[in-house]
Every structure is written in structure tokens, then in C-alpha cells.
Amino acid sequence: MKIPSVRVHENLHIILWLFKDLSWLMEYKILGLVMVVPTILVAVLIAWESRGDRSELFHASAVILWILANSTWMIEDFFFNGHGHVIAEAFFLSGLALLAVFYLVILPLERRKLRNAPPSAR
């Protein structure tokens, strides 16, 4: 069954993300940088496991963009004195745009198709 597998990966993802953000807070630059990789990889794994459900895939993809934004922000704080948040902003805005497309375009189209489908196809 896929749900428990995804749930285990989501729980692992939370732990990795907390370690990454704690490293950021404590200014452990090396650990923070190291934690970016597994945090993003597990997020990609979750998205891959979610690919069968369009809603879950869109949300998991938005989480990947959120982690990329968060990690870029951390790196900018560590090495660029908090200047140049433009890249982090681009990742955050991309995640929001992705979800906006899902909720404002794709989901309404799917609901309209379902409403217009013959009863035997529902």
C-alpha cells in the first residue's frame, strides 16, 4: 500500500527539514549545507511516490520549491549577509504559482469534466 510508504517518507522529511533549519538557526553552516541535499531528495521521492494523484503531486512539487526557497535563503544568510533574496523569492513565488494553477485552472476543469460525465463514467 502506498500511503504508509509516503507517510514514512513525509515523517523522515520533517526530521531532515528540522535538522536543516536548526542548523540555520544555530549557524552551523556545514551541517546546514549538508542537510539541504537529503531534505530535497526526500521531497523529490515524496513527489515521485505521489505522481499517481495529481493533487498530491502538485502539493509535493510546491513543497520542493518551498525547500529550495528555504535552502537558498539559508545559504544567502550564511554566505551573503542576507542580501540577494531574489532567488529565494523566485522559488517561493513559483510554488505559489504552481498551486494557483492547480486550484484556479486544473481543479475546476477536472470538476467540470466530472459534472459533465455520464453517470456510468463517474
* Number of β-strand runs: 0
- Secondary structural class: mainly alpha
- Order of helix and strand elements from N to C terminus: HHHH
Overall, the morphology is elongated
Identify low-pLDDT runs.
none
Q: Enumerate how many helices there are, as a single number.
A: 4
User: Averaged pLDDT, please?
Assistant: 92
Q: Helix share of residues?
A: over 70%
Whole-angstrom Rg: 18 Å
Note the beta-strand portion.
under 5%
What are the key terms here?
0% strand; mainly alpha; 122 residues
SSE inventory with pairings:
Elements: H1 2-26, H2 29-49, H3 54-79, H4 86-116
Helix pairs in contact: 1-2, 1-3, 2-3, 3-4
Task: Write up what this structure looks like.
The protein has 122 residues and is mostly helical. It has one domain. It is 84% helix and 0% strand. It has four helices and no strands. It has helices at 2-26, 29-49, 54-79, 86-116. Helix 1 (2-26) runs antiparallel to helix 2, helix 1 packs parallel to helix 3 (54-79) and helix 2 (29-49) runs antiparallel to helix 3 (54-79). The longest helix has 31 residues, at 86-116. The radius of gyration is 18 Å and the shape is elongated. The relative contact order is 0.10. The mean pLDDT is 92.
